[in-house]
Amino acid sequence: MSGYEACAEGALAAGCGFLGYTPIQPSFGIVRRFITRCAETGATFVQMEDEISSLAAVLGAVWTGRKALTVTSGQGFAQMMEHIGLGVMLETPCVIVNVMHDGASEGIPSMPGGGDVMQARWGSHGDYEIIALAPNSPQEMFDLTVEAFSLSERYRTPVVILFDPVLGRMKDSVNIPEAAKIRVEKRKYYKGPKDGYLPYKYDEKDLIPSMVDISQGYRFHVTGLTHDEKGYPVMNDECQEWNVHRLVNKIRLFADKIVRMEEKYLEEADVAVVSYGVVSRDALTAVEAARKEGIKAGYFRLQTVWPFPEKRIAEIAAGIKRFVVPEINFGQISLEVERCSRGRAGVDAVYHAAREVGKPGSILKAIQKTNK
Amino acid sequence: MDKILEALSKGIEKSGIGRKRVCLVTDILYDPEVLETLKIDLFHTSRGRTIPFATGMKLANPKLKPVVIMGDMATLGGNHFVHACRRNMDLLVICANHFVYRRVEGESASGDYDTVSYSPYLLFENPLNIPHIARSCGSVYTARWTALHTDELTRSISHGLKKKGLSVIDVISPPAELLDFYYRHSEIRNGEDTIHTGIEEEKKIIVGEFLERERPTFIESYNRQLEEVLGDQFVKIEV
Description:
heterodimer, A: about 375 residues, alpha/beta, Rossmann fold, 2 domains, seven-stranded mixed beta sheet, five-stranded mixed beta sheet, 15 strands, about 40% helix, B: about 240 residues, 8 helices, about 35% helix
């Protein structure tokens, strides 16, 4: 099946029961698969008037107890930024799929892009942390979509999946395990007396508060404003720190558990190629070609773009001469690699143009500079 | 207590639909201690985006009757209002109408903490004719009252909660010191054609129940269409 289809299947396998979307290409392959399966799965879908409302509807749906998904691309993702912040603040688990096309603005919708990775991290205003995953094959589209739902439930946060139309259209066999073998974290529900529920009273161990569903008689109040454990707005510094620092820490302090990466040939490497998404396929080809030429090249792939694997990049930096960071942009993740390597290794950002996807040439050339 | 919230509380009671089925989604900053007296689940969300939030809730749990209280829809979120009417989404939308951010010194009717006027030169833009937009876009019940028409407002809220589809109640809710002024300058004309319900200077504000009709709700249309295409395979959304 295609990457788009695998993504929709992953969402359904994870128990997603609601899709809010606004048609925008190149993301429609996911919508089509999801809604053609609604009879069997009992999932509900709605085509909203814009992406602001698509994500708002998703957030509303989640509070009824469902798992929910929205899919978009480019401009649609830009429209969702405000509600990513609301999702973070209300601690509403949900999954946002962004099919990155070449931009900025309207850009070239049919061409793969990589320009939204920083937007996924910093796009909404204010201070927050986010989780973003970047699959690189149809199989991973399935696996990481399931994982995205699992992480969103575990950390009570929106999770972003970033990929591009080349991966979306890519066809491959996808192994879908039996339903009983698919593990998704369960939502953490409050189990105490009805009149004792405090929506943002959290557990010191994991920093996560318990949820309840609407209409169960808990009579709770939640707000996008800075709030106390009752969910009441409190406009002072102390509450801002109590509220927002925990939102940051509940992901930052658990980053080691969240981060997923793939490594190859990094022992005794002189140069490490750091990549993600569709570009990582060309990166691996380039690394293997360079190794045949006798260059000690290693391969590092981000499956989790955010949180960024800071510690691992710092460790790798200590043992190599330079990083090569190919992206379909003019330098985004390369800046993170530079920050984390703290000057221990050089960083070459390589612009891997959309037309070069499938051709490892530019990456190989950059690797070859190591021995010069 | 805010007049709209007071009417909402009485309206829920009068409707008999049960407080468990009702939840409030609003972008207006009410005092949560006051909201708590409603004894329902409460969501204070992003400004102007209350209708889509409530739409998601309704579709994911069709037994709910979400109530939206929104500020002046003339600006943020007007598009969501238009499309909720078009879909005939099963919600009750109450517009706390301040005539486009027209606030003056003193507590505003919504209980907003912000007491500074956004319009130091007073108002020169035209307010929207909300009942007319609601009607032309597809809502099934439309009324307008001032915040001091408490009994009428309570009745309309009760009716809107029981009515299937999108009900819209435009509530003229200026700052407290002007409530009486607008009440006195209103005229009840039930059944008035909404083409005549625009708010104009030097003219009476027309209030009343303007529209009552039946149209298939979004969920009814969804069920009908998917059943037609998918046949017995499709499991209907139970309301």
